[in-house]
Each structure stands twice: as C-alpha cells, then as structure tokens.
Amino acid sequence: MKVVSFIPIKLNNQRLPGKNLLPLNGKPLCDYIFETVCNVDEIDERYVYCSDESIKSYTALYEHRGLRFLKRDKYLDGFQVKGLEIIDYFLRDVMADIYVLTHTTQPFTKSESISKSLHNVMSGEYDSAFSAVCLRDYMWYQGRPFNYDMKDIPRSQDLEPVYMETGAFFIFRREVFTQTGQRIGKRPYICEVDQFEAIDIDTAEDFAFAEAAMSYLAGK
Asked: How confident is the model at residue 79 (pLDDT cuts 50, 70, 90)?
C-alpha cells in the first residue's frame, strides 16, 4: 500500500502576499508543515507541489528526509482555481493508494494527528479522514436553531456536537477522489484537534494570532 503526501504551495497569495515564506518564530512558515510530514513514518513519498522553482531553496533542507519538489502547472496558481482541481492534477502526476493533503498555512498541525488518522484509513475501516474542531455550542443555520430546541434548551455539554473542518489535513484513498471527485468519502474518520492545531493563516491578523499562539506555547 503506497502512501503519498503532498503540500500544494503557491507564492502569489492575494490576502497576505508571500505568506508561505513569512518568518514565524524565526523559521519560514512552510518549514513547519515540511517538518510535520517528514515525521510521519507511514508516508512513503512526500511532495511539495509548486509551480515556482524558487521554493526548492526551502525544500532542499528536507531532501535527505525524502521531501521532493514537484513542479505543477502555472495555471493552478490562478486565483479562481479551487482546491479540488489541484488535487485532480496531482493525482494525475503521482500514483498512490492513499493520499495525505496538508497545507503550509496551518503550522500547528501535529504529525501524531496525521499518523493516527492515516492508521485508521489504512486499516480499511475508514475510506478517508480529516481534521476538525468539535463544537458544542448553540448553533443556528438559515434563521433557526441547528442543534437545539428553544423550548427545551439543554446544557451546552449535552448538545449534539457539530464538527468544523479545519483544513489542516485530508487523507483519502485514491478511489474516493477518482469515483466521487471528493476528498472526503462516505466513511470518514474525524480527527478532533484543539484550537491551536486548528489555527489557519490567511490574513495579516491570522499571522499575528499565530505569532501570539507560538509565543504562548513556547512559554508553557
């Protein structure tokens, strides 16, 4: 069973230009996820999927640990291109039984979370896995309560949980995507992560929050 991880990176970001290379606690942001995937022993091949070869100066430090640069079509850097299209291109480029998709924008992703989720998919019990935060709050959707009855309001700890995808990682069998066009199958394993691991950097405010979180965790 071949397991491949890939990290899609583009360097022409709109909301926070150059965010994937910004220094966070003295290291380029991309280094954190590079280190994370290199620490997952179950992964057979690891790729950074980018159109710009200048990223190779960052991946070079991890080549001895199996991280490779794979050049992708410049078209995939377009601002209107969706994530599923990037997955489709990668699956055409690299054959595998199971894929692990991670992102540079979530530097607190833990290798242990990926490994645990990967084991669940490899076992055959689940066809996919993803990271999520478990929310037990009073949720509304389309103008009405989503997970509680206003005439019989339960304690918050008794609410039905609602799971929010964090996007830190998605793990899926090849046939899940080729047959359904989805990164999550019909039998997903939901890996609960904490609010730190869920931090996602898209804006300058997100980056400042990540810096504060990094300082807090370093001081614990």
From this structure: confident
